[in-house]
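tool_call: predict_structure(chain=1)
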Amino acid sequence: MTISEKVAYLKGLAEGLELDTAKSKEAKLISVMIGILEEVGLSIEDLEENAEALGEEIDAISDDLSDVEKVVFGEEEEDDAWDDDFFEVECPTCGADIEINEDVLEAGVVECPSCGEQFAIDLSDEEEEHCCGRGHCCKAESEEKATETE
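tool_result:
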């Protein structure tokens, strides 16, 4: 039963009591309250209809966006290097694809299950190699200090 149906039922009960709104203050109050409940019920039904329509529009937009993503990024999104919590690297010795997780990534050293060779992982995007892994080059730092003291 919807809110409007419940309010209509309440209105019918009030009419069945044959309340005289001209003579009774209480009857007038009940009549006004039922009128307000009718308006609130209609407003709620309008909001529910609007919410349903918006939901359908959002679904349509989501479908359209999915189509655009397929065109822009290609059909296969599984080719990304990150797959959930795993990262795929290639062994520099034998070329085998190796899936590693964050723990191995933090350790920085991987052992290839195919050839047994161990190799380091460097994920820095910077052009300059960092000899210490602290985000800057120790050699460049020591050269700068030497230049400053001269």
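agent: Residues 82-149 form one domain. Proceeding to next step.
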